[in-house]
Amino acid sequence: MLKNDNNIDLQSKANQLRLDVVQMVHRAKDGHPGPALSIADIIAVLYFKELKIDANNPQWEDRDRFILSKGHACTVLYAALARSGFFSIDECRGLRSLGSMLQGHPDMNKTPGIDMTSGSLGNGLSLGVGIALAAKYRKKSYTTYVVMGDGEIQEGIVWEAAMCASKYQLNNLILFIDSNGWQSGDSIEQVSGLLPILPKWQAFNWHCQTIDGHDFTQIINAIDQAKKSPQPSVIIADTVKGKGLAYMENDNSWHKRVPDDEQLTIALKTLGGDVNE
Amino acid sequence: MSNYKGTREAFSQALIDLAQEDDRFVFVSADSLKAMRATAFAEKFPDRYIEVGIAEQNAVAVAAGLASCGLIPYVGTYGGFITMRACEQLRTFVAYPGLHVNFIGINGGVFGGEREGVTHQFFEDLGIVRSIPGITVVAPADAHQVYQAVKAISKIDGPVYLRAGSGREHVVYDQETPFELGKIRVLGKYGNHAALFANGFILYRAIEAAKRLNEQGIQVTLVDVHTLKPIDVEGITAILQDCGAAVTVEDHNIIGGLGDAISKVSTEHCPVRIERVGLQDIFPSSGPAEEVADYYGMSVNHIVDAVKKVLQRK
Predict the structure, then answer these.
(1) Contact between residue A157 and residue A164 where contact means Cβ atoms under 8 Å apart
(2) Which helix (H) or strand (E) holds A27?
(3) How far is CA A253 from CA A10, A223, A247, B13, B27, in A?
(4) Of A91, A50, A69, which Cα lies nearest the Cα of A222?
(5) What is the CATH code of the structural domain delimited by A4-271?
(6) What is the pLDDT averaged over residues B227-238?
(7) CB-CB under 8 Å, B89 with A126
(8) Which residue ranges does the record assign to the Transketolase N-terminal domain (chain A) (predicted)?
(9) Chain B nearest CA to A56, separation (Å)
(10) Do A130 and B97 make contact, defined as CB atoms within 8 angstroms?
(11) How far is B91 from B98, CA to CA, in rounded Å?
(12) How far is A275 from A277, CA to CA, in rounded Å?
């Protein structure tokens, strides 16, 4: 279903996703809220505006594909799928529980709307390359979107995929890099020699853009520009880890941490949602 | 009738034959087109030949992406580079979602990479893939069986690892011998003093050993266990019950491959004495293939001695 409604209140949608994330992690007593909140605005744009998907037909052959390579941020994806109608929001209560459709990381065989199993970092782009190549071969017009963390592009397979996408001129492949500057252990700068990111993608002949990953207009425009490019596109989205909750923002201890009752209450007040316990 | 000379050529011919019938078959290469003898495939089906370069992890993950969209990829390169370098991609993104990707690992065993040394001798591949849930594991003995096995695995739904050779395999079967996935094949039944289980390109040595033993009055039942997983429990148990002792012969570390697989069936269904001929959990050296196999305990004499040893303990 193509979303032509330009009046969608993306900020409200993103706030809802953020609140869902905090509630899921609080309820499960486990999960990664910081990395989920940093991509909430990108996910809101994708799921409530851009993606050609049909909640009533998750396996629709012509659907756009989405791969959350940084699978540890899956709570925000689960929230988006639930809020898009792929399954009931009640399913989110089962996050990380035995027998639940919502696994600790995305699972294409258990969760409607998940196009690719993911979570082991670095692999999402290669998987997306395969899907985008299949579209070329099958002469399908769908677009494949991948979201990776800036930390995970330290994995070597990412650059194998970058090379391959460029070789095959996969203009139907759009990669978001969630550039929040943090990874599990510490800042990107402290842990690795990755920076600067942009010239590396330029050197691999990708169409490159850098945007504010919390500005809906910039996200939407960047996707439009990416679709016009004859090359595979990377959108380096500068983000704030834990964005939306002051106590989480840029505090890397929230990479994997459970909000207590008081912190949940603050989230409810800040994000303006309903208690969905 | 199809024309090929070694296991790699047989793979290539089978893939071409498959591709002519069904446009879902694609080949993913990690700079392995020539190694796989698949140049003719690429020429006939250029849009179905995906070359990712020397990047096996990417090759396997790309194949997962292709398979998720309904295509049926064959990924072919040296077996160790699939099962070791790209092990995680194979396990997590192909096997876990249960996608149908066919992996063809060439130059398996010390026969495959003998001159290149340990970096190119892959004798853990079958053990690695056997331990991954849901993968079909096949080790055919010669080109004719590879040709048929490549076609057989095209029809199943799920991941497959097929071990092929270097092109120097001995011919064991004629072209018409059928290949039945998941079933053992009794190659020779001289008698029931002991069972001799073998697979892969070393099978010809087991055949020679069985003949030699027969000349010495020791009559074995010789069995090809080309499908290691799922293993033919019923067929193997029946042989074990009949013979009461067994020797396994494999061009693989004795840990993780055929010897372990037969031992497991025996332990659970028919406990008998078993001797395992294969690489004895050590790193081998470079050298001519036959010499390397002889030196590391996989000669015809070693097989004969193993049968005699197991009979003494029967």
Answers:
(1) no
(2) helix A10-28
(3) 28, 31, 10, 56, 45
(4) A50
(5) 3.40.50.970
(6) 98
(7) yes
(8) 13-272
(9) 19
(10) no
(11) 9
(12) 6
Task: Name the region of A118 (left: φ>0; alpha: ψ -120 to 50; beta: rest).
Answer: beta
Chain centroid to Cα B3, Å, comes to 21
Roughly how many angstroms between the first and final C-alpha of chain A, as a whole number? 30
Query: What is the predicted pLDDT for the residue at B116?
Result: 85
Give 3-state DSSP helix, strand, coil % of chain A, rounded to 5: 45, 10, 45
Pairing of strands B220-224, B185-189: antiparallel
ipTM: 0.95
Model pTM score: 0.96
pLDDT (mean) for A206-233: 98
Structure tokens at A83: 């809020």
**B35 neighbors B66 (Cβ within 8 angstroms):** no
Rg of chain A taking only CA atoms, in angstroms: 17
- Residue A147: which of A127, A116, A125 has the closest Cα? A125
* Mutate which: B28, B58, B75, vs A, most A CBs within 10 A: B58
Pairing of strands B160-163, B136-138: parallel
B118-126 mean pLDDT: 94
Beta-sheet strands, E only, within A46-143: 65-68
Distance from CA of A162 to the nearest CA of B (A): 10
Torsion over CA: B83, B84, B85, B90 (sign): positive
